[in-house]
Amino acid sequence: MSSPRPIIIVTGANSGIGFGICERLLSDLSHTLPPDAKPQFKSLSPGTAAQDVAPTESYDGATLILACRSEKKALEAKQRLLQGLDRRIAAGRRRADYDGHADVFRANLKIGFHQVDMSDAHSVFQFCEEIARTYPYVSHLVCNAGCAFWTGVDKLSAVRSILNRGLIWSITLPPFKLQHTGKMSVDGLGCTWQSNIFGHYIMYRHLKPLFTEYAARYSRPARLIWQSSLEGQPCWYDHDDWQLVKTDHSYEGTKFQIDLIASKLNERSLLPGGEGHVVRHFLVHPGIAHSNMTNGMVYAFFDTLKLILFYIARWFGSPNHTITPYGAAISATHIALASLLAIPSSLLAFAHRKNTDDPPRSLWDDSLSTLSLYADCGMESAAEARDREQHGQYVPLKFSSQTDSHGEGYVGVMPVLQWAKHAEESEFLVEKCEGLYQTFVKLEAKDGKGKVNGHANGHANSHTNGHANGTSRHS
Ligand SMILES: NC(=O)c1ccc[n+]([C@@H]2O[C@H](COP(=O)([O-])OP(=O)(O)OC[C@H]3O[C@@H](n4cnc5c(N)ncnc54)[C@H](OP(=O)(O)O)[C@@H]3O)[C@@H](O)[C@H]2O)c1
């Protein structure tokens, strides 16, 4: 029997990893049993092998919504997605065991485009209202769109980094990228912060009735998938600059805040009376992929050199250099399609299925090589995660797109760095987002449609400055 038809929103779907996620979802869903839905993990506790029997579902149709700021780019992406899918289906038809599923799926596939600028609250509200008018429910929201205002590379620091930390580390967590400081949005908020975080928070809050409808119809929660990065590190967090307007690492700062916000929302959703039956929050990262993200930072020649270095890193064993957007999409597509029973919530109690050691290494053991990239902070986080799990406390997980040296992708898991130290900050950030969301809801109701910039630079600006500067720590 077919499963409920998913209605999936992907932000920033027109290029890079967002496009890779769409392409991979379509390819997956057109299979009778989507490959990325297959369980990747196994329980280490005897008698709790629910994930071993977790069903892999089959879909006879879907709606994919491309949430992009440029109509032209989105329509081109749609055409490329359909052409790619049609090629895959045509190749599948030639196989002797072809069962016709892909043709049924293709006939019931809709790809929609809805314009949204994540850095403009009014645009996000309009987007959500358009979605509510057009679709009966939303099953998945993939919060992928992201931007950084790069200005270049600090070449001296790059050379120093390669000499001191080695090539692979330097192209995994590059500390030498230069970016604008203090870029503000039309709403008077930190622009990188609003684009990468707050725009998605508005979507999560404003689309809740559509997640609720999905949960009510099909007795399963909608899934919110937050796109983070390996670069989300505690060292880029500053309580007094939570909108990231003073820092010269606003991009990395947004990624660590995403870790904290998504983990807090997930924790809250699982509490008694939480929203876990309506919507579940998951944190993923794509590894390191070659995309448009660094346009403006390096010229074409260095862009090609960067790609070659990524392949060298992979050949030398870096599991994080997923390189292609399709490969980088695997953590998001697996989390979107796997049975909830097959998604682990513990590092110590699960192992990766591809791990054949006897006794098997746990996910905690597997995460150590990635955590070692972060020196003290990584090892401290590993110890913290182990202790918390042993005491039955919540440990937020981040699902990673990874690869072997031949480019064969799989999903890895790591704990959110220094969660215990930042648990209160995660609460603080969610409260800030919620406070701002409520302010913008009132402004939308008051100013009505069409006052895109008007409302923003007036009331919200004074409010947000009040939030940013006038609120005491942990208030
Ligand atoms: N590439 C990597 O190695 C890497 C590593 C870690 C995390 N990530 C994360 O992966 C996500 C996708 O990045 P990518 O590498 O695929 O980069 P990309 O190719 O530049 O894609 C970014 C997407 O986000 C969209 N976007 C940016 N600002 C927007 C806004 N204000 N409103 C609406 N859409 C907006 C872009 O639209 P336009 O085309 O209109 O600009 C584009 O579709 C980001 O969240 C990024 O932080 C990437």
Automatic annotation (TrEMBL):
<protein>
    <recommendedName>
        <fullName>3-keto sterol reductase</fullName>
    </recommendedName>
</protein>
<keyword id="KW-0444">Lipid biosynthesis</keyword>
<dbReference type="GO" id="GO:0005741">
    <property type="term" value="C:mitochondrial outer membrane"/>
</dbReference>
<keyword id="KW-0521">NADP</keyword>
<dbReference type="GO" id="GO:0006694">
    <property type="term" value="P:steroid biosynthetic process"/>
</dbReference>
<dbReference type="GO" id="GO:0005811">
    <property type="term" value="C:lipid droplet"/>
</dbReference>
<dbReference type="GO" id="GO:0005789">
    <property type="term" value="C:endoplasmic reticulum membrane"/>
</dbReference>
<feature type="compositionally biased region" description="Polar residues">
    <location>
        <begin position="459"/>
        <end position="475"/>
    </location>
</feature>
<keyword id="KW-0443">Lipid metabolism</keyword>
<dbReference type="InterPro" id="IPR036291">
    <property type="entry name" value="NAD(P)-bd_dom_sf"/>
</dbReference>
<feature type="region of interest" description="Disordered">
    <location>
        <begin position="451"/>
        <end position="475"/>
    </location>
</feature>
<keyword id="KW-0560">Oxidoreductase</keyword>
<dbReference type="InterPro" id="IPR051593">
    <property type="entry name" value="Ergosterol_Biosynth_ERG27"/>
</dbReference>
<dbReference type="GO" id="GO:0000253">
    <property type="term" value="F:3-beta-hydroxysteroid 3-dehydrogenase (NADP+) activity"/>
</dbReference>
<comment type="similarity">
    <text>Belongs to the short-chain dehydrogenases/reductases (SDR) family. ERG27 subfamily.</text>
</comment>
<keyword id="KW-0752">Steroid biosynthesis</keyword>
